[in-house]
Amino acid sequence: MAMEIEDIEYRRFIVEEYKPDVERLIRYLPWLEEKAGSNVSKQFTDSGIGVNSIPFPVYDSTLLGFIKEVQRTTLLDRNYRYIYSKHRIRTSADELRMISKADITQMDILKGILSKYVMGGMTKGTLWTDAVREGIFLKVIQKMKENVEFWDKPMV
Fold first, then answer.
1. In angstroms, rounded to a whole number, what is the distance separating the alpha carbons of residues 98 and 100?
2. In terms of pTM, does the model score above 0.85?
């Protein structure tokens, strides 16, 4: 009986810890749903870019707003590689499987997957667009919202 009370208290603690940040990100859900399956960046090839120049991506402004908002939360985990190693996450199929089964006590897994794409996208430009196109950002935020709402009340 005491174990159940401690477990419920722990889950409530997690809700209180993550709820403000999840609330900040759910406003991007309609955009992430709309853009799933599509490309949200293009290569800059305007005049002045010569044959010897390296093309660079130009991102959708909403995507950049989402990335900046995530960076202002406590949802980034610089040790996300540990989460991938600990849970043997190696492919995008593994990521999607882990997202779908993560409950409130496994928010670290969701943070790890989100972190891989947000932080990795700072140096590897395709990660952000891959995460939008493949629905990784969408599914992570939806699952975080679902977990918090299950133990609290619906968020708008």
1. 5
2. yes
Instruction: Output b/e per residue, 57-70; b: 16+ Cβ within 10 A.
Output: eebbeebeebbeeb
Q: How far apart are CA 102 and CA 112, in angstroms?
A: 12
| Adjacent-strand bridge partners of 79 | none
Q: Residue 78 is encoded by which pair of tokens?
A: 């610089």
Per residue in 111-144, pLDDT (tens digit) is 999 999 999 999 887 899 999 999 999 999 999 9
Q: Is 128 exposed, middle or buried (0-12, 13-18, 19+ CB in 10 A)?
A: buried
Residue 109 burial by Cβ neighbours in a 10 Å radius (0-12, 13-18, 19+): buried
Tokens representing residue 93 in the block = 């199929």
Residue 37 tokens read as 């399956």
> Which of 56, 59, 58 has its CA nearest to residue 31?
59
Tokens of 117: 């794409």
Neighbours of 149 (CB within 10 A): 15
| DSSP secondary structure letter of residue 55 | P
Strand partners, 41: 59
- pLDDT (tens digit per residue) in 25-78: 999 999 999 988 877 776 655 555 555 666 567 788 999 999 999 999 999 999
How far is 70 from 49, CA to CA, in rounded Å? 32
